[in-house]
Model the fold of this input.
Amino acid sequence: MGGHEKGHGRIELRRLARVAVSPEEIGLVGCWQVLAVERHRQPANDPEAEATVEIGYYVTSCALDEHEPEQMAAVVRNHWSAIENGVHHRRDVTFREDAHKVKRSRGAHAANGGAPAVLATLRNLAIAT
Done:
């Protein structure tokens, strides 16, 4: 199963592969299916730019025959949309996280090596309360 989508300044092709498993086989209680989603992303405004390829792996309690491949692809896509529009939106709009200048320094003597993780933890705490 595959599909093209244009948005966020890029053209994306996604392909889904899935396999039925048992909780005993995979060692995860309630897991009946493993999915792999391959994403090819090309900048929409630069056809000469090199495309990126990533593969995401997912597990679900849905049985293989419970949903068609297109439905499972939509479930995965909607899962990430909810994260992007929910937590990420709050973190970026409320805390301006994407514009924040604290970055992880490299090297053994990095003065703020743990600062990004500490700030992210504090933001998560603030959102959860």
